[in-house]
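1st attempt posting a full record on here, be nice pls
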Amino acid sequence: MNDRFDVKELSRTIGDLRANAERLLKAGGEMEAIKRNVTKILANIRMLELNISDVADITNS
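the predicted structure (as tokens):
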């Protein structure tokens, strides 16, 4: 297993996930299933942001 990773790339990918989830939420309109599931996805993306993206900000300071 390779323990090396690019924090900047992970952070960019997480940002892309957030943008796609928000687009999906907007495109889903008032579909309750979309709203519920995308809300859960966004919560998981937030955890990724806390774990990775925020670390990327600290390492770039």
